[in-house]
Amino acid sequence: MAWGYYIGILIYTAVIRLAAPFNEKAALWIKGRKRIREKIKQIPRDKERLVWFHAASLGEFEQGRPVMEALKKAEPHTRILLTFFSPSGYEIRKNYTGADYILYLPADTPSNARFFINHFKPDAALFIKYEFWYNYLAELYKQNIPIYLFSAIFRKEQPFFKKWGGLHRKMLHFFTRLFVQDAESVRLLSEIGIHSVQQTGDTRFDRVKQIATNAKEIGKVEKFLNGSPAVICGSTWPPDETLLLDYINTYTGNYKWILVPHEIGENHVKAILEKCQKRIWRYTDEKADISGAEVLIIDCIGLLSSIYRYGRIAYIGGGFGVGIHNTLEAAVYGIPVIFGPKYQKFKEAVHLLQTGGAFSIQKKEQLQELLNRLIGQPQIAEAAGHKALEYVNSQLGATEIIIQYITSKN
Predict the structure, then answer these.
(1) Which of 300, 269, 270 has the alpha carbon at shortest distance from 283?
(2) Is 16 helix (H, G, I), strand (E, B) or coil?
(3) How far apart are CA 273 and CA 275, in angstroms?
(4) Measured distance CA(25)–CA(56) in Å, rounded
(5) What is the pTM of this model?
(6) Is 340:360 a contact under the CB 8 Å cutoff?
(7) Which of 5, 46, 149, 361 is the most buried (most CB within 10 A)?
């Protein structure tokens, strides 16, 4: 047994319990796992084939969704078990109809892993992108259950490639096959003796294409725009909003602005309302008179990926913090993408910049100059948007490759 890892899991769980009275996310983490074994026992394991998908959170779920749905289409009778680590994934997608069973993943202890796998006896297990839980992987491997990791990406600074990363390397050997995003991941894995690897690309491209193809019309947004062009500012944080509002407050053209903050807590929304000097409308305000409104703030979740369809230009938040949010959700609509300086860890953002479909800014003056150019010369924005869409289209197909391999091994 990896005692250091086991002790770390126990400490982590204890810290979450201590934080639960003061932190909503921690409270949901604990509540969701309360009497988890009883919940599992209530789920029958019938004779049909069962495939287990595990996602850390909402982003990984969206990355895995096209694979789940393609598997269900190829094998209609296969049961799909979906687990989440984080409340931000489970609480939003606990009613997802594409899976037969949806649960929180019990903490990664040897006892929980044995109980979980002995009960469900999955015919295969698929982990999405970054999920590495030693005891679950070890138990699956022990019981000769195929384990796949897909849409994975590896970098040399990760523990797998450090002298002290023996436990991490051992987890990689448990996998039957790893489907990775790029050639660099193949190379790095080969150097540490991991050869059951296939470069397939990233299933997120397939997912954003699905979303764009089925994007819903949003009547309130259409009423607000009333035919005007718009800049969509998605997943913004306060540093992004400061730069954007500095521009919006002095802008005098015919563009309208839609702000979709990453955090929609009341204090944050009110802070934006106070800083905005233009006529601004809250999406959830049913009584507001929107005639003449120039700015719309989306103070609810679940709309952003469809709202991008109404944009001529997109600004993606997070680039002045830990890193930018999803650029592909906007690029798939053929519009140019703008983001802050912290994008280097996001391969798709680097490639969008290289192809001319995106722009990175570091300070207020650069954003103002760029927006003036893209708004004032729409042919520049249109050309960049075409390049963004061409890039997305060139990366499609990872889902089909993964499904063909997995179904061929049944």
Answers:
(1) 300
(2) helix
(3) 6
(4) 14
(5) 0.89
(6) yes
(7) 149
